[in-house]
């Protein structure tokens, strides 16, 4: 129960990576605020077409409560400036405090540069840079008053320099803008960590070492691309949410490399089962530093 008495806000937690993180933090005693665009299945819009994806706020809350945890649901469209600015205040109204902020919510619509529309460009920047900036800005004063806080941004291995000679994936996947903004998020993490270190607020970034096949990302991941279980990423996020900033801040860590290199035990999402160590695959980007950047 590492997080007993703490409150965590996990954005984009109606499904996928966000849901897994919410479950793992709740299993360690945190009261978790589950948020997504709405209480109904939210549409994923790519190339002008919308398709509803499985997963709701209510389902995540029910899963956490069924496992003995505490969770609250708050709907907020993070592309709406007013809803975004109100989110932290809503969390405080419901729970009275905010100790942990996990910036997970995202939007991905890949396209090669030549054919990418400005709407896709703008929405990618909005989700992965502006929103973490705004939510961090709103959360920091409350964390400072409490004497401690933890911010975890969800990064991406695509934010690292691609392997040379370039792989076929890099030539045609269309992930350049997504990857570029994730690289900016990595740097944002490290810069913010320096700014709030003396306030005992830790800021770290965690990304998959390969890829996690979630409902939202599955369309973008080739069938032959190596993927990984989400539990290792959720455990790595947890590792960034309890030590004082002086001991662990400013890291950009990856979900198979970090637990493997640090000997970090990885548990099931409910905390009840110890999973086997999982070595990073040989195909992983060699630019990953096992202990974090």
UniProtKB/TrEMBL annotation:
Specify whether Secreted is a keyword of the entry.
yes
Q: List the Pfam families.
A: adh_short
Which N-terminal stretch is annotated as signal sequence? Answer: none
Keyword vocabulary terms for this entry: Cell wall, Secreted
Q: Which domain of life is it from?
A: Bacteria
List membrane-spanning regions.
Answer: none
Q: Where in the cell is it found?
A: Secreted, Cell wall
The Ketoreductase domain extends over: 6-209
Q: Which family does it belong to?
A: Belongs to the short-chain dehydrogenases/reductases (SDR) family.
The protein, known as: 3-oxoacyl-[acyl-carrier-protein] reductase MabA
In which organism is this protein found? Mycolicibacterium litorale
């Amino acid at each position: 129960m590492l997080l007993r008495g703490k409150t965590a806000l996990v954005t984009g937690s109606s499904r996928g990576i966000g849901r897994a993180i919410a479950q793992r933090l709740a299993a360690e005693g945190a009261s978790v605020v589950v948020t997504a665009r709405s209480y109904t299945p939210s549409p994923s819009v790519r190339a002008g077409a919308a398709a509803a994806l499985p997963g709701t706020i209510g389902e995540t809350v029910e899963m956490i409560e069924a496992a003995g945890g505490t969770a609250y649901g708050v709907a907020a469209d993070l592309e709406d400036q007013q809803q975004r600015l109100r989110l932290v205040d809503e969390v405080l109204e419901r729970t009275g405090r905010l100790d942990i902020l996990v910036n997970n919510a995202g939007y991905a619509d890949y396209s090669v540069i030549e054919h990418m529309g400005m709407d896709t460009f703008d929405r990618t920047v909005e989700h992965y840079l502006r929103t973490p900036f705004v939510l961090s800005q709103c959360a920091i004063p409350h964390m400072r008053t409490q004497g401690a806080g933890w911010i975890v941004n969800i990064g991406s291995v695509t934010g690292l320099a691609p392997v040379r000679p370039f792989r076929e994936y890099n030539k045609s996947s269309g992930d350049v803008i997504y990857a570029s903004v994730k690289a900016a998020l990595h740097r944002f993490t490290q810069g913010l960590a320096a700014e709030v270190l003396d306030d005992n607020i830790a800021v770290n970034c965690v990304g998959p070492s390969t890829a996690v096949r979630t409902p939202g990302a599955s369309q973008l991941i080739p069938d032959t691309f190596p993927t990984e279980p989400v539990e290792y990423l959720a455990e790595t996020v947890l590792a960034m949410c309890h030590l004082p900033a002086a001991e662990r801040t400013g890291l950009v860590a990856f979900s198979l490399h970090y637990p493997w290199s640090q000997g970090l035990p990885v548990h099931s999402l409910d905390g009840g089962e110890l999973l086997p160590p999982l070595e990073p695959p040989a195909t992983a980007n060699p630019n990953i530093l096992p202990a974090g950047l």
